[in-house]
Amino acid sequence: MWRELIGGLYDDAQFGVPASDEAIDQIERLLNQTVPDDLRELLRETDGVQAEYGSGLVWSVQDIITENTRFRQSADFAELYMSFDQLMFMGDDGGGNQFAHVRVPARGPDLFVWDHETDERKWVAGSLEEYLRRRASSYM
Asked: What is the pTM for the complete model shown?
């Protein structure tokens, strides 16, 4: 389902090989955060998607782990920005802004964009599918 949706929205989409459940489970263990169901399903079909001139539309399992760990453990970032512990970065716009699921128990799989210049965290979509559609229409 995800490959077809993304392929229909992005002419330049490049897909990874499917990720295993064990690999996806590593995200949860290492970040101490549940992977939203829609993101888990997408990663099972393709371990990341590049589109829009090479930007990380959806990162691979390894990129999710690496980038989130880097953001959470950076002493420099801790001085400059609010905590990243509530975010699970999962994509980027190629210009420094990151897209993330937010861990809030009462909310669904909402996605936010983090602005790297202002540290603003702004709601962009209520689901991964909505995020993909809005991004394709240049809404973000």
From this structure: 0.92
